[in-house]
Specification:
single chain; alpha/beta; Nitrilase/N-carbamoyl-D-aminoacid amidohydrolase; 6-stranded mixed sheet; C-N_Hydrolase_sf; CN hydrolase domain-containing protein
């Protein structure tokens, strides 16, 4: 199927989740997936660390078990809807803050580990990923994944756009006082890269963190297709049209017009410019 003629209906879950309660969060996932599927969604996107909780400190080690990915895959299979699930995943060197892209039949399509750890909280709990991507063709739309702080680095989104992504999925746990990111930065990222972004944030609080909500789906031209409020749980829907993304890129050719070969000059330029020819202004 040509990606220029394909579309993907996505659902973004804005939720508080339940701290440290894997089974409770998997039940919430099933409920959201059931509603999203009934309304025609092809893919559900959860917030960051939705299955386990994010700011739960030492409890994280107990709930991120070796069999957790398998339990999540089983839950997605029972829900019957492909899902991008934010969760902790155990690695030999520690716990990764991950998103698992799981198809409706429970098969794992791809996994991404958060590459940019935010502050002391992230660094105390997680080990960082070391690669971006991959870019995956899903229902004819090329998508990739980032997690929360990752999207705040322009080079990450630019790299994925240059690799061919048309949609970036961003599970998030954005907290106060960073409302600006959710309210403004996503539209800039989408516009400057001509790429759609789905931003799934938490609401409520965990420990000292108060989450800012404001989940959104932004199209490649910077227009907001759907958005949620600051405090309430919600389920957003929008259709990402691959052809519209490509048309946006032809109208606003940032990716074609960029000049990555330019270097920063190490010294000021001192050679004079040629003098202007002002002969046409002289009185003869």
């Amino acid at each position: 199927m040509s990606t220029f003629n394909s579309s993907l209906r996505i659902a973004v879950l804005q939720s508080a989740g339940i701290e440290g309660d894997v089974e409770g969060n998997l039940r919430a996932l099933a409920a959201a997936a059931g509603r999203a599927r009934s309304l025609g969604a092809d893919l559900l996107i959860t917030p960051e660390m939705f299955v386990t909780g994010y700011n739960i400190g030492e409890r994280l080690d107990a709930v991120v078990t070796d069999d957790l990915p398998g339990r999540i895959r089983t839950a997605v299979r029972h829900s019957g809807l492909a899902t991008a699930v934010g969760t902790g995943v155990r690695r030999p060197d520690g716990i990764a803050n991950s998103v698992l892209l799981i198809d409706a039949d429970g098969s794992l399509i791809a996994r991404y580990d958060k590459t940019h750890l935010f502050g002391a909280l992230d660094r105390a709990l997680f080990v960082a990923g070391d690669t971006l991507g991959p870019v995956i063709s899903f229902r004819g739309v090329r998508l990739a994944m980032l997690i929360c702080y990752d999207v705040e680095f322009p080079e990450n989104v630019r790299a994925l756009a240059l690799a061919g992504a048309q949609l970036v999925i961003v599970p998030t746990a954005q907290m106060e006082p960073y409302e600006f990111i959710a309210e403004h930065l996503l539209r800039v990222r989408a516009w400057e890269n001509q790429i759609a972004i789905a931003y799934a944030n938490r609401v409520g609080s965990e420990g000292r963190l108060r989450y800012v909500g404001r989940s959104s789906i932004v199209d490649a031209d910077g227009s907001v297709l759907a958005h949620a409020g600051a405090a309430e749980e919600d389920l957003l829907f929008a259709t990402i049209d691959a052809g519209a993304v490509e048309r946006s890129r032809s109208r606003n050719p940032y990716l074609l017009d960029r000049r990555p070969d330019l270097a920063v000059s190490p010294v000021p330029r001192t050679n004079p410019l040629p003098e202007e020819d002002d002969s046409h202004d002289r009185i003869r």
